[in-house]
Amino acid sequence: MPSNDQPDARKNPARLTTQAIAAGYDSTQILSDVSLAVANGQMTVLVGPNGSGKSTLLKTMARILAPNAGQVLLDGKSIHAAKSVPRQRLWHRFEVVI
């Protein structure tokens, strides 16, 4: 039984997920094998030192940067597949606060 302070995945499934993402710029790989599930209706925070890949991950999740490997899924559909998820719909699903 989940505690009161933890989201119940059955009631609040992740709508935005990454699966084994690898991404970077030119020949420099920044991310390797990153998997993440963002629970619907929950605040998710990425914390790390400068250069750890936070912005690269967010750019990949926002379809600004294409992954070298892996995939980003919104409601079970790849956001990087040809026009599978319109960019406006994607951007309305989550916000980035810097």
TrEMBL record:
Q: Which GO molecular function annotations are given, in alphabetical order? A: ATP binding
Instruction: Please indicate if the UniProt record lists Nucleotide-binding as a keyword.
Output: yes
SUPFAM superfamilies given in the database record: P-loop containing nucleoside triphosphate hydrolases
* Keywords of the record: Amino-acid transport, ATP-binding, Nucleotide-binding, Transport
Q: Which residues form a coiled coil?
A: none
* Pfam families for this protein: ABC_tran (PF00005)
Q: Domain named ABC transporter: which ranges?
A: 31-83
Similarity remark: Belongs to the ABC transporter superfamily.
- Spell out the protein name for this chain: ABC transporter ATP-binding protein
